[in-house]
């Protein structure tokens, strides 16, 4: 069952690459007492994710913060090395969190996992965005087609704030 608006996020621990190596970030540390935009991609370095979805959030970071967002995070079913390389390559390092859901446990707990084995990717996340306030989902925007980033794009999130 897919998480719904008004529900609390499940507890999880992610890994994020920093200058000092990997750190663990819990859902409590990221969301407690904060307004956070979380968006998910099927995979770091994949075409739509790299050329469309992520750049929109990086370009609109300041606009989101100006509308009261405390933090922005992207999550993918990739390891922290890949997410760290993507953060560095994209220019997003230090601007938003690049979270590794390496075993898809958080993604599966949300009910937002997708079997993309036919495309050679295996189990991944559906493409979505959500606004989370103090750990509770306030808006949820799931793409019907993983190759598109429209309802989950930064511009759509700005309109919801």
Automatic annotation (TrEMBL):
Active site: 49
Keyword Oxidoreductase carried by entry: yes
Enzyme class, first EC level, given as a word: oxidoreductase
One cellular component term from this protein's GO annotations in UniProt: cytoplasm
Assigned EC number: 1.11.1.27
GO MF entry, a single one: thioredoxin peroxidase activity
Reactions mediated catalytically: a hydroperoxide + 2 glutathione = an alcohol + glutathione disulfide + H2O
An example Gene Ontology biological process: cell redox homeostasis
Thioredoxin domain residues: 3-161
Organism superkingdom: Bacteria
Entries under Pfam families matching the protein: Redoxin (PF08534)
Keywords: Antioxidant, Oxidoreductase, Peroxidase, Redox-active center
Keyword set includes tRNA-binding: no
Family stated for the protein in its record: Belongs to the peroxiredoxin family. Prx5 subfamily.
Its job: Thiol-specific peroxidase that catalyzes the reduction of hydrogen peroxide and organic hydroperoxides to water and alcohols, respectively. Plays a role in cell protection against oxidative stress by detoxifying peroxides.
Protein name per the record: Glutathione-dependent peroxiredoxin
Organism: Rhizobium terricola
């Amino acid at each position: 069952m897919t998480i719904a608006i008004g529900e609390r996020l499940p507890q999880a621990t992610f890994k994020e690459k920093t200058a000092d190596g990997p750190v663990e970030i819990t859902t409590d540390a990221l969301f407690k007492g904060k307004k956070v935009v979380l968006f998910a991609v099927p995979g770091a370095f994949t075409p739509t994710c790299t050329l469309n979805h992520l750049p929109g959030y990086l370009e609109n970071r300041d606009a989101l913060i100006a509308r009261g967002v405390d933090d922005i995070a992207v999550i993918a079913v990739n390891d922290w090395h890949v997410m760290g390389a993507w953060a560095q390559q994209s220019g997003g390092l230090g601007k938003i969190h690049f979270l590794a859901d390496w075993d898809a446990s958080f993604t599966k707990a949300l009910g937002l996992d997708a079997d993309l084995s036919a495309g050679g990717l295996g189990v991944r996340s559906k493409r979505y965005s959500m606004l989370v306030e103090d750990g509770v989902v306030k808006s949820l925007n799931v793409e019907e087609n993983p190759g598109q980033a429209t309802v989950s794009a930064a511009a759509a999130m700005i309109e919801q704030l």
